[in-house]
Design brief:
single chain, seven-stranded mixed sheet
Length: 323
């Protein structure tokens, strides 16, 4: 815990001293990684804010020299006077109590939203932002005075971010941090990669030790293990990726294996490809998420595919040529 508090103090002092956007972004990203980081950062912030208020009092004439630990802080903030440094040191213990109050306020405002298998849901946040949750998805939301922190725990979500330059909107998706101010983007946690689609505006993305990448609307990013691969998307492809928000799923040259995987996200019992030879067939069309049987019927009428129902309501897809 001491290491976390030391890092929180370092990031806060650095950002406050420079007041540079990159330093604040780095601090906010670190805070979004773990609730303990938020507690420690609030503690550092509360301590220095209290120190500044106390510093408005007249200084006495018999102040002792600053301890070595405080001198180190003076190097980080050369404009801080000796009295402020002493007050900052003296209030370190008091900051624990202040930070506890702040932390309780923060933790009390963490809201959880989730969807069941086959369910989609739209949540309006207090700041006016919208979160559209896809099937079997879960998020945690913490709205602060200086930041809006979202953690995508599972599944997929589209974020319509209300514009607020004073409170960046940060989404943490399995270690991938997406920072926005007023944009629209979609994040999906896949088995091996985090998929980001920027619909409107610009977002900043970082993963692990990777450099921050700015990604504009009409582009997608596949993020994994510190690598961020950015590609351009045609409007039709973006529409296809977010069709679920209208209760639809769209295919345009996708393989049958990809289409089955997509439908299975919304089914309690799966579609199963029972013949590897048909897995690479290319399919297209738009279907309702809750009517996968329409998709199966289209396969049987348009392709040489036979659907065999299982006793557990699963459907096995095989080649009809084997009859």
């Amino acid at each position: 815990m001491q290491a976390i508090e030391a890092e929180a103090a370092r990031l806060y002092l650095k950002a406050r001293a420079s007041d540079a956007a990159d330093d604040w972004n780095a601090a906010y990203a670190w805070v979004a990684e773990n609730p303990a980081h938020g507690f420690a950062f609030a503690k550092a912030e509360a301590g220095w804010e209290l120190a500044e208020r106390l510093n408005e009092l007249p200084a006495s004439q018999d102040e002792a020299p600053a301890p070595q630990a405080v001198i180190a802080q003076a190097e980080a903030r050369p404009l801080i006077g000796r009295r402020r440094l002493l007050v900052g040191l003296a209030t370190a213990a008091a900051a624990i109590g202040v930070a506890s109050t702040v932390a309780l306020r923060l933790f009390d405002t963490v809201d959880h939203y989730r969807t069941a298998l086959g369910e989609t849901r739209t949540v309006r946040l207090a700041d006016g932002s919208l979160i559209h949750l896809n099937t079997n998805s879960s998020v945690e939301v913490a709205l602060r005075d200086d930041m809006r922190s979202i953690k995508l725990l599972r599944g997929e979500a589209r974020f319509d971010v209300a514009h607020d330059t004073k409170r960046p909107f940060i989404v943490n998706a399995d270690g991938t941090l997406v920072r926005a101010v007023g944009t629209m983007f979609n994040v999906r946690l896949r088995a091996d990669v985090t998929e980001l689609t920027v619909i409107e505006g610009i977002v900043a993305v970082r993963n692990g030790d990777s450099a921050v990448r700015r990604i504009e609307s009409g582009r997608s990013a596949a993020v994994r293990s510190g690598s961020i691969a950015v590609t351009h998307l045609e409007p039709a492809k973006i529409k296809q990726r977010i069709a679920w928000q209208d209760g639809m799923v769209e295919f345009e040259g996708d393989t049958l294996a990809q289409a089955v995987e997509e439908f299975n996200r919304y089914r309690a019992t799966p579609l199963v490809i029972g013949d590897p030879e048909i897995a690479s067939l290319r399919v297209g069309g738009a279907f309702r998420l809750d009517r996968s049987q329409d998709f199966v019927d289209a396969l049987e009428s348009g392709f040489a595919i036979r659907a065999v129902p299982g006793s557990d309501n699963s459907i096995i897809l095989v080649s009809a040529n084997g009859d």
